Every structure is written in C-alpha cells, then in structure tokens.
Amino acid sequence: MSDPKILILTIAVDIPKYSHIENRIRQTWGKHSVSNVELIFYTGYHHDYPRPNPEEVIRQGDMLVCGINDNDKAGKHRLIDKTIVAVDYAVNNVECDYMFRTCSGSYVDVAELAKFCKTIPRTNVYAGCPLSHIGINYVSGAGILWSKDAAATFAKDAAVAFAKDPNILRTAGEDVSIGDTMQRAGIPIAKFGKRVEIGESYNYEINEGYNTRHEKGSTPRLVRGHYHYHTGARPEYFDDYEALIKQRQLRNS
Description:
Blueprint: E1 6-11, H1 21-27, E2 37-45, E3 57-60, E4 63-69, H2 73-76, H3 79-93, E5 98-102, E6 106-108, H4 110-117, E7 126-133, E8 136-147, H5 148-164, H6 174-184, E9 196-197, E10 228-230, H7 236-252
Parallel strand pairs: 1-2, 1-5, 2-4, 9-10
Antiparallel strand pairs: 3-4, 5-8, 6-10, 7-8
Helix pairs in contact: 3-5
C-alpha cells in the first residue's frame, strides 16, 4: 500500500489573540517539506480577502476563504459554519487519505504525523484528545484526525443538520458539535489519539485506555511518537520546537 496523503487543515482566526499566527506557522512547522503532506488554512472573509457567496469557498494559495464574515461579532463565533464548508471543500477538492484539523495555537511535528498515519486504519478514523460534555463524547478541536471518509461523513451530516436548523450546531462548542455529529453517525473516537499539552492552564482528564500524553509545565520537549503539541496562543514556543526538530534531524543525519 502506498504512503497515505495527509492534509493539515488549520484554523486562521481574525481576532487579536491569534492574529497572523498563521505566518508564524508558515515560518516554522509549516515550512517542513514532508512527502504527501499538505498544509492549508481556512478563515472567513474579512479585509484581507474577497467575499465568497454564503456556503462558498474560494481558495487563494494556501488559504481557504469561506463565505462567512469574520469581521462582525456573529462571524467570530461561527467557527462551526466555516468548518463545515471548509472540510466539505477539502474532501472534494484536495487529494488526501487523512485530514488533521488543528488550530493556530498548535505546533505539529509533520514528520511524526506522517509516520503515525502509516500505522492506523485508512477508514472510520476520528481521533485526538477525547473529552466529554453534556453526554457527548468528542475530540478536542485543537487537533482532530479524520480519515477522509469520516471527514466526508461529518461535512455531509453536519450540512444536513444545519439546513434543518441553523442554530442546532451553535449551541455548544464547535468541537462538541463535531463530536455530536460523529456520534450520531456511529463513528466512535479511536483509541490512538496523541497530544502533548504545554502550559500551566491545561489540565484535561484523559479517559483510561487512550494513548494520549499531557504534560504540565512550560519546558517544551519532543515526546517520541507524538505529533501534536498544543501551546495555546503562544507562538513563542514554536521556535523552541523548531530547535528541537533541528537537533533531531542532526542526530539522524
């Protein structure tokens, strides 16, 4: 079987806390060239981008611009709307076997992600940091790993639910709404999600049996076999991880 193709789909949010972090990503982990891995961002339209029609997506380079206004108050809180149309666009227009949806506050070890995807099933994958809210089991939105078929199921089923009631998926967090859609579709959370937390403010309880590792503290370090490092809105950690990646490359050369 050939090596899997992976799309890293990253949220680019036009609010001060995360403004322009996508450029830091391009300068750090996003610049690492790994065979069969592509990085694409997605956002709503604002002053930097044209205005697509509602539910339309326009691709400009490595950015998907969704037909939702990021400049108004409502637009900033309609992440689920953007995610549905962006994932649908990606499923139908980008060649991939897996889709890793992440946030601007994450550092991705692209080489390790590519290795990891060689070891897991090609279908029915919905994986990441497992959490639960109001009876819904879901994966934290900072890092959602889908197989292409699972991503397609999410986009299709969420669009149908949205058409019936535009507010049905906005009552909880975006990641909770994604989990609700996956749960209704009968796709469980896979027990092989991985993530490392950096920062004192994070203290998630991980369900027993999941191969997920969290570390509290502010000293970045690479953890063997892990590909997702959640730093929050702290792009200064990106440089630390870049140095660690470089050291690893030198050791392996």
